[in-house]
Amino acid sequence: MSSDISGQTIIVVGGAGYIGSHVCKALQASGAVPVTFDNLSSGHEHAVKYGPLIKVDLRDKAAILTSCGDYKDASAVVHLASSIEVGLGETDPAGFYNNNVIGAFHLLEAMRETGLNNLIFSSTCATYGDTDQMPLMEDQTQKPFSVYGKTKLAIEHMIQSYHKAYDLKYLTLRYFNAAGADESGEIGEEHDPETHLIPIALAAAAGLRAKMKLFGTDYDTPDGTCIRDYIHVNDIAQAHILGLSKFGQGLKAAEVNIGSGEGISNLEILKLIADVTGSSVPYDAAPRRNGDLTRLYADPGLAKELLGFTAQYSDPKTIIASAWNFHKRVWGL
Ligand code: UFG
């Protein structure tokens, strides 16, 4: 398909990961060439299907500079690589700051030295922290309480400073809960360990794991469980395509929420999983998980205004059906 970005080379740091592989597929479908930079520490080589793979680790400053130099004619860099497991960040902040913040610094420096000047950065709704103001708007005060959220906010600030001082053009996308899989079933969510609700509940429904734990049933919500905003990974990928085309139209700097705008509770998700799979999800009510917020959902207005973005695939049942399609293949069901 021809598009504004047709023929462009785009560096995708973290292109072997869950969201990165979907971004690469969307780039290829738009006629662009995605070049994946990945150390394969959590991404998968088998998910790099849409362009070349350069094995490089962001913590290696010299190596990332060489790789950026090799692709200095690329039109933009999409940076998705990071440590994401919120619980792990609390026990290994050194690893998180090193991989996320120092890694991003090395990338920004390599971009500066090689003249790569357009960046899309994957941030998160976890940078907002605890607030009763829903839906979340981009100008909401950011007070993250998880180490994960703090590292992402530190990178947001670093990028803003590079914009101001060095004229870096950037688009920071604050994702809500990425979920689902490409309809082909060839790529999807494959974290190890898996900590996310939908893949864990699908495995429990399929009888591949013992009862799952439902963390917290005493929240101040209609059914007592947390509320989240699930956004299909292909909608997230599309937001990148729209964002990349905006660089050619003069985009200089922006922070934008990428969510569906709809909140759904954990218990409602389990019910939908039973509908989709035909098997109920065995679970035990468990205490609240450390660091979980009661409710999080986006105001998607700015994404629409600035990028022309509207979620297409993020009806929760569609998300779950696509994840189930992927996992059935991976699990040989
Ligand atoms: N949950 C369970 N049992 C499980 C796993 C999850 O009850 O086995 C619950 C969680 O407690 C939470 C909800 O399901 O209430 C969603 O949890 P996820 O782990 O799927 O997603 P999070 O909302 O915790 O995390 C997501 C992203 C993070 C990001 C965060 C921002 O995965 O990268 O949103 O809040 F930081």
Spatial strand order of the main sheet: 3-2-1-4-5-6-11
Name the beta content range: 15-25%
Per the CATH scheme, the topology name of the largest domain is Rossmann fold
β-strand number: 13
* Radius of gyration, taken over Cα atoms and rounded to an integer in Å: 19 Å
Instruction: Please report the number of helical segments.
Output: 10
| Mean of residue pLDDT values | 96
Quaternary state reads: single chain
Please outline the helices and strands.
Layout: E1 9-13, H1 18-29, E2 33-38, E3 53-55, H2 61-70, E4 76-79, H3 86-91, H4 93-114, E5 118-124, H5 147-166, E6 169-175, E7 177-179, H6 197-205, E8 212-215, E9 227-228, E10 230-232, H7 233-247, E11 253-258, E12 264-265, H8 266-277, E13 283-286, H9 301-307, H10 316-330
Parallel strand pairs: 1-2, 1-4, 2-3, 4-5, 5-6, 6-11, 7-10, 8-13
Antiparallel strand pairs: 9-12
Helix pairs in contact: 1-7, 2-4, 4-5, 6-8, 6-10, 8-10
Bound molecules: uridine-5'-diphosphate-4-deoxy-4-fluoro-alpha-D-galactose (UFG).
Q: How would you briefly describe this protein structure?
A:
38% of the residues lie in helices and 17% in strands. The chain is an alpha/beta fold and 333 residues long. It folds into two domains: 9-180 and 229-260 and 299-311, Rossmann fold (3-Layer(aba) Sandwich), CATH 3.40.50; 197-226 and 262-296 and 317-331, UDP-galactose 4-epimerase, domain 1 (Alpha-Beta Complex), CATH 3.90.25.10.
